[in-house]
């Protein structure tokens, strides 16, 4: 699971008001190279919760992202590379996503987050 | 300018919408964004199912891009002449302006003439004869059969499909033109399902998957989502055209495990050297796990929803739970990690409702939702009610007949209006209504029994059903 996905997901358990952001429980992180695609990154940047991305990438062991970012920084290749690395190259291969309100763990195995709810959560 | 557009004689309903979608993708409507339709016309005495059409496109460059990217266009040609006989053809070609012809006939260029036919076979000798008859065109270049600068086509049709006393779809006509572009059908053997490593029972046929990607106007830099991803066959086509992809499925075995480390959804992308999906996840389309406030992130949603004929849909919540027979099963704490939640059948109506709601929220304005919708075939009623949504405009419906009883229609919808609070609230109420009246909706939307139940022989006089079969149904091909 890449951090772009993490940025989009929330716990949707019945009754949970604040299911975002999910806490990351790291089991195993892998890095896979992704070619820089500035157009795509610019497109996604507008939709991101950037603060959540910074925190998440720290949890995954990558602390090079600047704390604050604004659209003008997308012109800098250095920033694009960092964004690309945090957003697309870091994978949570094993671990879990934890609901911030209930502590319910959504397991991540073989890179696939299992977001399906149990019977008593729907 | 008008071009001759010749189609492969298959998936007839899909041909013009594909050209229209691609024309828009390559900028044909930039001048006049209000009127997003192309002008079409048919050769004399041709039925709309004819493979020969004329289409008006703004430039040769757009015509080339459309033809090269399409799946169903055999070729787009600059027509130099046409006629009902060779004499008429000669007259037409002779009177076609020299300034259009001469630049392609120069001594330093190379060329090739192909003789083609529809509905008949022309022997090799006859083909040679036909080419030699064209000597009134002042070709000066050298012939190069492999990689010519200019490709010319002499296409001939006989009356076709005139059996059963029905009118023919084409009448004899001869066309001569210069090729602008043609579909790359080599894609299809490359991506054909029989050489795909990981397949499921309902994997989307490669040709159809490419057509869906074209309807969705997929291009590099776009993000495409499939909420019923299965083995990823639709996303493979989208990735081939350069899109970033995401997929979800309720069945964890399909998305996570596949059939082993080298036979899963990821390996299907690796097989063709395509970029891996941005993400695959296990999620229920009935209760999507997207964060509040996330919207307008996908450029296209392409999918084949499980409508219960070959594979049924499932959603969260056990069957008994939704019937109200038992209270929710409380999972013991020590079993929570590995617990496999029970699921309930997902009716078609609810599935489509959820899909439209998701698309309305998550698509960018101008983004496209492309999906299959099943239709029971009834000879009497012709107008079908397709799903509607205030955020969407239906731009294309392409039917593919699957059996005597039912067919599926590929719907292409464009998001034209923002997802407002009122629409969200209406969707929430509808969602609850589906939960409360779960069983009623399942019965109403039970397509499988409508398709597979035995024919009621008493209600029909035996002769009637047979005679209706004889009607010309071009869409069968």
TrEMBL record, chain A:
In Pfam terms, one family for this protein is: Trm112p
**SUPFAM superfamilies referenced in this protein's UniProt entry, alphabetically:** Trm112p-like
* CDD domains, per database record: Trm112-like
Instruction: List, in alphabetical order, the Gene Ontology terms for molecular function in this entry.
Output: protein heterodimerization activity
What's this protein's family per the entry?
Belongs to the TRM112 family.
Q: Which residues form the signal peptide?
A: none
**Protein name per Swiss-Prot or TrEMBL:** OLC1v1017421C1
Listed under GO biological process in this entry are: rRNA (guanine-N7)-methylation; tRNA methylation
TrEMBL record, chain B:
Q: Which segments constitute the Ribosomal RNA large subunit methyltransferase K/L-like methyltransferase domain?
A: 195-317
> Single GO cellular component annotation?
cytoplasm
Q: Which UniProt keywords apply?
A: Cytoplasm, Methyltransferase, RNA-binding, S-adenosyl-L-methionine, Transferase, tRNA processing, tRNA-binding
Q: Please list the residue ranges annotated as the tRNA (guanine(10)-N(2))-methyltransferase TRMT11 N-terminal domain.
A: 2-185
Gene3D superfamilies registered for this protein in UniProt: Vaccinia Virus protein VP39
Q: List where in the cell it is found.
A: Cytoplasm
User: The organism sits in which domain of life?
Assistant: Eukaryota
Q: What is its main location?
A: cytoplasm
Q: What is its EC number?
A: 2.1.1.214
Xref: InterPro entries: DNA_methylase_N6_adenine_CS, RlmKL-like_Mtase, SAM-dependent_MTases_sf, TRMT11, TRMT11_N
Single GO BP term: tRNA processing
The GO terms this record gives for MF are:
tRNA (guanine(10)-N2)-methyltransferase activity; tRNA binding
| Family the UniProt entry places it in | Belongs to the class I-like SAM-binding methyltransferase superfamily. TRM11 methyltransferase family.
Q: From the Swiss-Prot or TrEMBL record, give the protein name.
A: tRNA (guanine(10)-N(2))-methyltransferase
């Amino acid at each position: 699971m890449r951090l772009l996905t993490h940025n989009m997901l929330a716990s949707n358990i019945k009754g949970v008001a604040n299911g975002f952001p999910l806490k990351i429980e790291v089991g195993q992180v892998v890095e896979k190279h992704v070619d820089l695609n500035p157009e795509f990154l610019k497109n996604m940047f507008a939709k991101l919760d950037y603060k959540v991305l910074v925190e998440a990438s720290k949890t995954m062991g990558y602390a090079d992202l600047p704390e604050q970012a604004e659209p003008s920084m997308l012109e800098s290749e250095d920033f694009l590379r960092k964004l690309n690395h945090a957003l697309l190259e870091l994978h949570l291969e094993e671990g879990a996503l934890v609901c911030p309100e209930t502590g319910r763990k959504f397991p991540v195995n073989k890179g696939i987050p299992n977001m399906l709810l149990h019977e008593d959560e729907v | 300018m008008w071009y001759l557009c010749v189609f492969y004689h298959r998936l007839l309903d899909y041909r013009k919408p594909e050209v229209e979608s691609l024309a828009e993708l390559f900028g044909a409507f930039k001048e006049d964004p209000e009127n997003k339709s192309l002008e079409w016309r048919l050769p004399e005495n041709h039925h709309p199912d004819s493979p020969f059409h004329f289409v008006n496109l703004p430039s040769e460059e757009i015509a080339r891009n459309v033809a090269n990217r399409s799946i169903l266009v055999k070729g787009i040609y600059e027509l130099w002449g046409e006629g009902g006989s060779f004499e008429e053809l000669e007259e037409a070609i002779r009177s076609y302006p020299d300034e259009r012809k001469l630049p392609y006939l120069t001594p330093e260029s190379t060329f090739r003439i192909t003789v083609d036919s529809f509905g008949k076979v022309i022997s090799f000798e006859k083909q040679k004869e036909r080419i030699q008859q064209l000597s009134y065109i002042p070709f000066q270049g050298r012939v190069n059969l492999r990689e010519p600068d200019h490709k010319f086509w002499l296409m001939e049709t006989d009356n076709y499909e005139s059996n059963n006393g029905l009118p023919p779809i084409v009448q004899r006509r001869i066309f001569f033109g210069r090729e602008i572009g043609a579909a790359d059908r080599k894609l299809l053997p490359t991506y054909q399902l029989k050489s795909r490593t990981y397949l499921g029972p309902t994997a989307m046929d490669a040709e159809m998957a490419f057509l869906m990607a074209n309807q969705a106007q997929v291009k590099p830099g776009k993000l495409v989502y499939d909420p019923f991803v299965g083995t990823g066959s639709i996303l493979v086509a989208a990735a081939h055209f350069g899109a970033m992809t995401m997929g979800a499925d309720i069945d964890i075995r399909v998305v996570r495990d596949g059939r082993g480390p080298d036979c899963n959804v990821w390996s299907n992308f690796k097989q063709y050297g395509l970029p891996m999906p941005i993400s695959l996840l296990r999620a229920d389309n009935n209760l999507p796990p997207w964060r509040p406030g996330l919207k307008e992130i996908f450029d296209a949603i392409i999918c084949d929803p499980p409508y219960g004929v070959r594979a049924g849909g499932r959603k969260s919540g056990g069957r008994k739970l939704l019937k109200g027979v038992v209270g929710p099963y409380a999972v013991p704490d020590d079993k929570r990690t590995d617990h496999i939640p029970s699921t309930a059948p997902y009716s078609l109506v609810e599935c489509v409702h959820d899909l439209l709601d998701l698309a309305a929220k998550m698509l960018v304005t101008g983004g496209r939702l492309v999906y299959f919708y099943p239709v029971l075939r009834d000879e009497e009623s012709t107008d079908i009610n397709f799903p509607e949504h205030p955020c969407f405009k239906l731009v294309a419906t392409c039917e593919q007949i699957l059996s005597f009883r039912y067919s599926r229609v590929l719907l292409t919808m464009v998001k034209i209006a923002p997802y407002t609070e009122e629409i969200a609230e209406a969707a929430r109420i509808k969602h609850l209504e589906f939960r409360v009246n779960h069983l009623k909706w399942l019965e109403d939307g039970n397509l499988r029994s409508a398709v597979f139940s035995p024919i009621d022989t008493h209600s029909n006089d035996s002769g009637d059903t047979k005679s209706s079969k004889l009607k010309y149904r071009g869409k069968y091909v």
